Amino acid sequence: MSEWFFSKQRSSKDIPIGGLMEEAGSSRHFKTGDWRSFRPIVNDAKCISCMFCVIYCPENCIRVKEDAKRGNFDLDFCKGCGICGKVCPVKCIEMKEEAQFLK
Amino acid sequence: MTNYKAITGGEAVAEAMRQINPDVAAVYPITPQTIIMQKFADFHADGLVETELVPVESEHSAMSCCVGAAAAGARVMTATCSAGLALMWEMLGVASGLRLPIVMSVANRAISAPLNIHCDHSDTMGSRDHGWIMLFSENGQEAYENMFIAVRLAERKDIMLPVMVNLDGFITSHGVENIDVYNDQVMKKFVGENKPNKPLLDIKHPVSYGPLELPDYLFETKYQQIPSMEAAKKAYLEIGKELSQITKKEYGFFETYKMDDAKAVIVVINSTAGTVKRVIDQLREKGKKVGLLKIVMFRPFPYQEIREALQNAESVAVLDRAASFGANAPLYGEIKNAIYDLKKRPLLYSCLYGLGGRNIFESDIEHLFNQLLNKGLEEVNYIGLRK
Description:
The complex is a heterodimer. Chain A is an alpha+beta fold.
């Protein structure tokens, strides 16, 4: 349902009554990454995989690898709030202006 | 078989709640509503209902509690008035916007300031555009019966809207009447089982209530409320017909009293209709052609039916117990809209009365009828005011 839901402008008769979302986990279809004005850039060499950034991320968009190390940032959802950088004890996350990556 | 009880209008509403036995009721006191929930809490304490009674910390919380419980799939009720209804403002729109079948009784009372605990309709009229179905009651018996219609109306799948049952604070809520309390089992069967629409507790079919909607969808979602509100008119008549098999009464959008040949007509809401009827009986004995149109359903508003009912009247006074500052009084404005399409419109007058519980007497109404018959009124009049 979701691709269709988000790709087509449907009429009042074809949407759930009262604005209900009738699909579990549908927020994954609503990509909030385009709100971002600052992008987190990680210096992997300095990262100690303490997982502070993973726990503090309000969007839960920092992945965890199978070996329990910190994984990639999912930029489809990262809003660029910068909390990961603030809580990082070794200061390995730098917030850079999104405009730099627009080319 | 009848079972008369000498009880107040507020207790009559509580009797209806006892028979309906809602799953959840949010309770917060405010005069003069308190008499309703106090009595219902008695029923709860005596084990006569299985309701989860939630004592909340404010009316905003009371309506929030109702919203959450109704979304979970429960049959839900609360009661309030005046400042309490005003504090609910935000959640009133949430309840109707999420299409939750909540039933709330309102013992109409003035809105502050100045602080006043007595009856007028400024509370409920202020909330008239929040998407609730609004029913009004002349007396305790009507309030009692409106509660059953309200539950059925709210829960119908083609409606799914909250319903407000209004009765006059103190005048009706605290006035003792002989109330015909119908058989428990019969009324239980009448309201039937609650079959909630997409309840949150149906974990096999997960849904989210109240997510963000941006300009691309909000308009469509709000539009859904318009045909549903319109459908409430037909549904009300159908449910009323069913109830009339039990009560042997008729349920219309409004009641007409001696209107057939009436030249002068008073349009009014709630308890004052009773006084008007008495005056009409007296004036009819003197041969004066006077009548009453008493509004029961205010939202949705029955424009067409009222237009037809007023087409033969010569002069009509619309009595409002609430002002709309800088605009036509609420009921007057609606009646004016309703008669716009008549080829021959009656003379129409606005009469503001009864604010903050100011009494209106038979002599006031008799005087008004005489003024109507002699067409001696201003467009806007104030009954009982020391101007």
